[in-house]
């Protein structure tokens, strides 16, 4: 049997043939369902334009391959793979998924390539692998059209982790939700961090001026108590505490003018 | 303002922004008091820009240190920041002891930090955003020795703490500059 080739074309989910395939699938090994009983060779191009016929033949072929291989869970995965092939017989790309499948000596990680339609199959196939004994390795479902060897798996897991963290970062940074594209989002994050650091520096200057200007220990306890109670700052609350502070502040107003700038202005300076 | 801030991240359980904020406030206010006590009494008369900038830098460092302490040592960036400050304070003191005071008025020990802290400058050419990853590594303390996914994680926490810090500092400044 020649190595089956997987078609990589994008599978439109609105393909009604998927449903027919799902109906065909449960009765296993029944060649009677196969209408054409047609091309047994791995050549999928010769399939008719009618996708249902293709799938029927493909499913028949798939089952026959499965029977011929006579290995437990690989069969299921292989059939799923083929099912996904056949759903896209008019596919553009073809990749050899089956390298792993054919080489599987029963101790490798198996991957089932799921297509959009094959998700329905997978629901049924997940019942099927209960027959084969559970292996020690983790069965990972790869997405359609992606390579399934170990390195790619690790790569994919890492990429997903990174994209998940990028999403949380996007939630943190305001205005980042609309930006699409990792590079731009990263630029935005970098700008945001820089602006925050500039704000800290600016505020530290302001605090230093405030610090040197007045004696704030009497009002300090009021501030700490209020803040630790996590009350929102309203004007009235601050009035009472700052009254004492203001008495001290009558004196020196030796503050440079540029410190009166708002912090928002400082932020705008950078952008 | 603070209530709104607290309600923004209720689901981030390991880094509770409320507790970080309160811890930061406490530590920072204490450090401000300490700075004020240690600064010379005639602070208003010392109007030279250099002195002013030095004091501002001290406030800034105090802010960062108190933020790092409030964040806890579980986070890589806070550990890196504390290490950096301690290391640079030590080196700063050494320089002051050796050279004259004017030369040690280097207002950016950050540059020295980056030069010394480059122990493991792992060139991270991961596929996505590898050019920006370097800039991000420089911004986030301790980011040089991290892979990209850890860097993103630390960045998220760092941003949260920075936002807290800015809010608290702004509220303090507004409170006392009325």
From TrEMBL, chain A:
SUPFAM superfamilies: HLH, helix-loop-helix DNA-binding domain. Coiled coil: none annotated. The keyword DNA-binding applies. InterPro entries: bHLH_dom (IPR011598), bHLH_ZIP_TF (IPR024097), HLH_DNA-bd_sf (IPR036638). GO terms for molecular function: DNA binding; DNA-binding transcription factor activity; protein dimerization activity. Gene3D superfamilies: Helix-loop-helix DNA-binding domain (4.10.280.10). Residues 146-196 form the BHLH domain. The keyword Disulfide bond does not apply. This is Transcription factor bHLH79-like isoform X1. The gene is LOC115741445.
TrEMBL record, chain B:
The keyword Transcription regulation applies. CDD domains: bHLH_AtIBH1_like. InterPro entries: bHLH_AtIBH1-like, HLH_DNA-bd_sf, IBH1-like, IBH1_N. The gene is LOC115753382. Residues 110-122 have a biased composition (Basic residues). Residues 1-20, 94-136 are annotated as: Disordered. Residues 21-87 form the IBH1-like N-terminal domain. The lineage of its organism: Eukaryota, Viridiplantae, Streptophyta, Embryophyta, Tracheophyta. Residues 8-20 have a biased composition (Polar residues). The keyword Nucleus applies. Its main location: nucleus. It is found in: Nucleus. This is Transcription factor IBH1-like isoform X1. It holds the Pfam family IBH1_N. Keywords: Nucleus, Transcription, Transcription regulation.
């Amino acid at each position: 049997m020649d190595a089956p080739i997987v078609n990589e074309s994008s599978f439109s989910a609105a393909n009604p043939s998927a449903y027919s395939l799902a109906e065909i699938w449960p009765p296993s090994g029944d060649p009677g369902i196969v209408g054409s009983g047609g091309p047994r060779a791995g050549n999928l191009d010769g399939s008719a334009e009618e996708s249902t016929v293709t799938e029927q033949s493909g499913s028949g072929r798939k089952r026959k391959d499965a029977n011929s291989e006579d290995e437990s869970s690989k069969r299921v995965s292989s059939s799923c793979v083929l099912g996904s092939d056949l759903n896209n017989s008019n596919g553009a790309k073809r990749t050899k998924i089956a390298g792993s499948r054919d080489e599987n000596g029963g101790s490798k990680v198996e991957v089932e390539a799921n297509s959009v339609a094959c998700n329905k199959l997978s629901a049924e196939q997940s019942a099927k692998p209960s027959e084969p004994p559970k292996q020690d390795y983790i069965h990972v479902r790869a997405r359609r059209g992606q390579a399934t060897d170990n390195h790619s798996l690790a790569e994919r897991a890492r990429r997903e982790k990174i994209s998940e963290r990028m999403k949380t970062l996007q939630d943190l940074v305001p205005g980042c939700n609309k930006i699409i594209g990792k590079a731009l989002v990263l630029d935005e994050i970098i700008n945001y961090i820089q602006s925050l650091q500039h704000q800290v520096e600016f505020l530290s200057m302001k605090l230093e001026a405030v610090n040197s200007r007045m004696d704030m220990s009497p009002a300090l306890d009021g501030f700490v108590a209020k803040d630790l109670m996590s009350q929102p700052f309203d004007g009235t609350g601050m009035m009472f505490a700052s009254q004492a502070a203001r008495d001290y502040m009558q004196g020196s107003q030796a503050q440079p003018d540029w410190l009166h700038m708002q912090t928002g202005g400082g932020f705008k300076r950078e952008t | 303002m603070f209530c709104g801030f607290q309600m923004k991240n209720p689901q981030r359980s390991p880094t509770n922004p409320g507790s970080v904020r309160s811890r930061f406030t406490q530590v920072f206010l204490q450090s401000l008091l300490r700075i004020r006590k240690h600064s010379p009494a005639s602070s208003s008369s010392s109007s030279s820009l250099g002195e002013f900038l030095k004091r501002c830098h001290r406030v800034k460092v105090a802010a960062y240190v108190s933020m790092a302490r409030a964040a806890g040592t579980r986070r890589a960036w806070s550990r890196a920041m504390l290490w950096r400050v301690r290391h640079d304070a030590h080196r700063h003191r050494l320089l002051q002891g050796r050279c004259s005071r004017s030369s040690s008025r280097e207002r950016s020990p950050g540059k020295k930090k980056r030069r010394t802290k480059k122990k493991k400058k792992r060139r991270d050419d991961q596929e996505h955003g590898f050019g920006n990853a370097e800039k991000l590594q420089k911004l986030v303390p301790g980011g040089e020795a991290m892979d990209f996914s850890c860097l993103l994680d630390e960045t998220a926490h760092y941003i949260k703490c920075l936002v807290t810090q800015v809010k608290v500092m702004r509220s303090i400044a507004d409170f006392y500059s009325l």
